[in-house]
Amino acid sequence: MFFKKKKQEGQKVDWEALRRRVAAKYDTTYDAIDHLTGTILEHRQGIIELLKRADPDNNEEKIKKILDISDGGVLYIKSMQDKKFHEIARHTKEPPFVKLVFIQPFLAMALAEHTGVYNENIGHIVGNALSIIAEDGKHYDHLKQNPDLIVDMIQLQLKKLGYRYDKDKLREMVRKAVEKAGKIVDKLYDKYQEDQLKAFRTALKVDNPFPVLKQAGIDIEPELEEFRQFLAEISGKKTEPKKQRQVAGVPKPSEELAEVKLEVLSILNGLEFAGYTEEAKRKALEKLSSRIAELSKEKPTERVLLGLGLYTYAIEAIKKGKLERLREL
User: What angle separates helix 95-115 from helix 84-92, to the nearest 10 degrees?
Assistant: First the structure.
């Protein structure tokens, strides 16, 4: 295998020298390569928020199940980080292998919607398929040129686990998924620029990644919306483009307020997916209370006051079990 040939057992690696070689190869900086590798190692809520924006259901719990994520503050994505393709990216620090890692969650979400199966097997199926091609020396650029590289391995695993699928439809779905997810990955890793990679790395660890990305000149929302529409199409779910409707005489809500509404609905979806358990309710209330505490530290602008009102309303609705009211937001 490619990786085994590259790395002899017991051989010490000069990581600094490796970073410098990779930086020179891709015409970027030493620190840029450090930030690039960090994007597949250090994950907190930010990566979840990115994936939720691409999900027709905006459902955090569903995403965590598909990707087999354990949450101890720092997220551990088992279907990604336990796999050989992730190890190869970590050790080679080559951008095309890093990008192969980051496309995995999006392909897993697509496979879940295509099959209607929303458990950890799906994430691991995609992770295993990507590991096979990575061990053969193939990476993100090869996958974009030929998405069929992973189709047979995905089919084999689906069959082994007893999941039903149509070969031709699966092949077509994978091709489209690679194309559309590739737009997201390409923009996030554009030209391997140090400032943008640093911002991207930071965005993956904060509660709301979008302002961090936008400040660095990265507007990823159009690509995420295109992928969301694609997932809705293959799953048969009804969804409309995310845009604010202007009602006569009613001011258009700010982008920040729209994000508050989106977050409240996301928490509601998470409650539904978790079966409205007491533990799920407790976590939802803690999250909402945390947001109220954060907003309370800001100046009492109209946006802040409206946000406080929405979060407080959501808390009372959850406590009283009147969750249907949140659907009217």
Answer: 160
Each residue's pLDDT tens digit, 275-307:
678 888 888 888 888 888 888 888 888 778 888
Strand partners, 72: 74
Handedness of CA 104, 106, 184, 217 (dihedral sign): negative
Is pTM beyond 0.90? Reply is no
Q: Is pLDDT above 50 for 252?
A: no
Closest CA to 20 of 30, 10, 11: 30
pLDDT of residue 69: 97
Contacts 24+ apart (CB under 8 A), 202-207: 202/46, 203/46, 203/50, 204/39, 204/42, 204/43, 204/44, 204/46, 204/47, 204/50, 205/42, 205/43, 205/44, 205/45, 205/46, 206/44, 206/45, 206/46, 207/45, 207/46, 207/49
